[in-house]
Amino acid sequence: MIYLDNAATSPIDEEVLDAMLPYLKEEYGNPSGKYYCSAVNAKKAVEEAREKVAVLIGTKSEEIVFTSGATESTNFIIKGFMDYSRYYGSGKTHIITSKAEHKATLNTCRFLNGEIYSNHDATVALFAANKRIDRGFSADFLDVDGNGAIELDTVKRAITDKTALASFMLVNNETGAVTNIVPISDLCREKGIALHIDATQALGKIDVNVDAIGCDFLSASAHKLYGPKGVGCAYIRSDKYGLPPITSLLHGGEQEFGIRGGTLAVHNIVGFGKAAEIAMRDREKNEKLICELDEYFITALDRIPDVLPLVDPQSRVKGIISLLVKRRNFNNERFIKRVSSEVAISTGSACSAGEPSHVISAIGQKENVSKIIRVSLNKYTTKSNIDCLIHLLTE
Q1: Distance, CA of 7 to CA of 3 (rounded, Å)
Q2: Which of 63, 159, 332, 340 has the smallest CB count inside 10 Å?
Q3: How confident is the model at residue 395 (pLDDT cuts 50, 70, 90)?
Q4: Residues known to be catalytic
Q5: Whose CA is closest to 371, among 329, 319, 341, 337?
Q6: What is the pLDDT of residues 177-233, one digit of tens each?
Q7: What is the distance between the alpha carbons of residues 208 and 210, in angstroms, rounded to a whole number?
Q8: How many angstroms separate the CA atoms of 64 and 146, rounded?
Q9: Cα–Cα distances in Å, from 101 out to 81, 97, 131, 336?
Q10: Cβ–Cβ contacts within 10 Å for residue 34, how many?
């Protein structure tokens, strides 16, 4: 099977797997243990991985907190920052985000906004208003442009004297749209608002430097850049006293600077570190390859009637291509099921499986939600893989 759903997850790099195996077989000590060699070796491996991840985003290792993935990081940052702000800090309680964010951001903000208690909220009634809870916070979900990116003027209009945090993705996971984040960051700094960036789809695809961006927080996952599933990081900008106070999402032990309890998954963390190291080492080579494959695919699409890119190729990251199939009887779910033994593609985010894409609705394409497929490339993709998909689309 040809794998073209890398925005959902990427295959693990062989070098990453080789780096992980010793920490599953021989070096299985708990890094929070003391004195004995397997614990010391595990702790050393974690800190080496922390340094590699820090280098990838241009920061210091003490600003990296390991988590189970970007979803946990996003929950931790948004809930933790807002809770501390309300009860111990400025007292501000307002969040701004966009309608095209990943569900990790959307549902975290909806939870704080009193709209839901879980991702399958049973309080939603068919013939009555949804039950709303006053959790003491408010959130605004802003419109995006036709590509799925947030614009500066939209953010400006949403800011109030109660706004504590803004949260936006750097690269949209369904359209590939790249947000022009630096002007938004400058605005947030001017207004005294903290900025969280979801860099999950950006890491390993484009240069991500937290100082150049000017963000206060960042979320990422290893499995989007050829690392293992089940591990990610939260970047927290430090000040001259160290990490700023933030409410823990997971209370427990003193792991991860005392703000994220739980025994560390050393093998996964080592894998994340190795994936970050490879991403830095091979960045130029991989970017060139993905760019060439992307252009080859777009050029080939010109030969197929009624199949075209959904968003402007100049506005998106290379390697994530959403297609609009303008054929009367085309249905994306049926098509993907029919070709599933030959090629892996998707209708959008794996976290929104089974329901219409909120991103597609947010960019004004709600009427075409059943006619859009997402293709996402990786460093192992070949032109012959693309030719196979082109053949299937032509048929």
Answers
A1: 11
A2: 340
A3: confident
A4: 351
A5: 329
A6: 999 999 999 999 999 999 999 999 999 999 999 999 999 999 999 999 999 999 999
A7: 6
A8: 34
A9: 18, 7, 23, 24
A10: 8
Q: CB of 169 within 8 A of CB of 198?
A: yes
Helix, strand, coil content of the chain in percent (nearest 5): 40, 15, 45
Please list, in sequence order, all residues whose beta carbon lies within 8 angstroms of the beta carbon of residue 258, skipping any fewer than 6 positions away: 248
Look over the chain and give the mean of its residue pLDDT values, rounded to a whole number. Answer: 94
Q: Which amino acid is at 173?
A: N
CA gap 130, 287 in Å, rounded: 46
Tell me if the pTM is above 0.85: yes
Check: CB of residue 89 under 8 Å from CB of residue 185: no
DSSP assignment string, 36-89: SHHHHHHHHHHHHHHHHHHHHTTS-GGGEEEES-HHHHHHHHHHHHHHHHHHTS
The dihedrals phi and psi of 385, each to the nearest 5 degrees, come to -60, -45
Tens-place pLDDT, residues 243-300: 999 999 999 999 999 999 999 999 999 999 999 999 999 999 999 999 999 999 999 9
Bridge partners of residue 323, in order along the sequence? 309, 373
In the predicted structure, residue 126 carries a pLDDT above the cut 80: no
- Decide: residue 235, CB within 10 A, 0-12 exposed, 13-18 middle, 19+ buried: buried
Tell me if 87 sits within 8 A of 246, measured CB to CB. Answer: no
Mean pLDDT, residues 159-180:
97
175-191 pLDDT tens trace: 999 999 999 999 999 99
End-to-end CA distance of the chain, in Å? 18
Domains and CATH numbers, the chain: 2-10+283-394 (3.90.1150.10), 14-281 (3.40.640.10)
State how far Cα 36 lies from the chain centre.
Answer: 37
